[in-house]
Specification:
With 259 residues, the protein is an alpha/beta fold. It contains nine helices and twelve strands. A six-stranded mixed sheet has the order 6-7-8-3-9-10, sandwiched between helices. Strands 2-1-4-5 form a four-stranded antiparallel sheet, covered by helices on one side. Strands 11-12 form a two-stranded antiparallel ribbon. Helix 4 (117-129) packs antiparallel against helix 5 (145-158). The chain is globular, with a radius of gyration of 19 Å. Bound molecules: adenosine-5'-triphosphate. Adenosine-5'-triphosphate binds next to helix 1.
Length: 259
């Protein structure tokens, strides 16, 4: 695995000429960095992520991965470099956990070639990283929501991407698995773009944070500069209080409705 440099240059999108859901956004992410995309419901987070994993084509601007325009690469080339874990999960309920994770190797196989020993090792490692070895023969349809989420992360890891896109990766996960998955993905040599609803998690996990509000970039930069009471109020319409946790000294945000 290696990490990609991501450049988003003036990228905008809308389903028609008369409707713009994402106004031009620009940012640059160093290899191995983690970008958190936050914002209220409907702010445009999933739309931006869909552009980054090449599901939507930008109306304006371009997205570069190590200097290469995503839309000048083939879909297969992109799939070798970009993996996405989405809120919608597959409906391959009859497949086993191992079979679903092995699908992550598909972009790397040529033609009808069978998976090599190395492919199998990568799948086994992804299963073990997500603590799924004990259920690798179970049918996907029999798993709980949180277990399915871990399978989807394992499939993305098996893809050995240079850029990992996560849309609300902690949905369905209990607190322990939230922390474990996020800490694990942070140790991988991969660039990460993740949408998150939990601002404290975004502040502690991410190197850079982008706040979207009504399809526009409201603020972008290091969490300490971006997740401020002023921006949180503007983006979410809540009063935000910032305190320091003891003994770590880490900032912690709490929220209340305006009086
Ligand atoms: N193809 C489309 N046509 C019309 N409207 C769309 C389309 N796709 C998304 N939208 C709208 O664009 C807005 C942004 O959607 P998006 O899914 O990006 O928001 P989000 O920030 O991910 O929201 P959430 O936190 O609720 O998941 C929403 O109001 C959504 O209904």
């Amino acid at each position: 695995m290696s990490a990609a440099r991501l450049n988003i240059e003036e990228v905008s999108w809308g389903p028609s000429r008369s409707l713009t859901l994402l106004h031009p956004v620009s940012l640059a992410l160093e290899p191995g960095a983690c970008l958190g995309v936050v914002g209220a419901n409907g702010a445009g987070k999933s739309t931006l992520l869909r552009l980054i994993y090449r599901y939507l084509k930008p109306r304006t601007g371009r997205i570069l991965l190590d200097g290469d325009d995503l839309w000048k690469m083939s879909a297969r080339q992109t799939a070798r470099k970009v993996a996405a874990v989405l809120q919608e999960q597959p409906t391959d309920f009859a497949l086993s956990v191992r079979e679903i994770v092995a699908l992550g190797r598909r972009p790397h196989l040529s033609g009808l070639a069978s998976p090599s020993g190395r492919d199998q090792e990568i799948v086994a490692k992804a299963l073990s990283d997500m603590q799924l070895q004990g259920m690798s023969s179970r049918r996907f349809g029999t798993l709980s929501g949180g277990e399915r989420q871990r399978v989807m992360v394992a499939r993305a890891l098996a893809q050995e991407p240079t850029l990992l896109v996560l849309d609300e990766p902690t949905n369905h996960l209990d607190i322990r698995h939230q922390l474990e998955i996020l800490e694990l993905v942070r140790t991988l040599p991969v660039t990460i773009v993740t949408s998150l609803h939990d601002l404290n998690m975004a502040a502690s996990l991410c190197d850079q944070v982008l706040i979207l509000s009504s399809g526009r970039a409201l603020a972008y930069g290091p969490p300490a500069e971006v997740i401020t009471p002023h921006h949180v109020d503007a983006a979410f319409g809540v009063v935000c209080h910032r305190e320091e946790l003891q003994p770590s000294g880490r900032p912690h945000l709490t929220f209340s409705l305006p009086l």
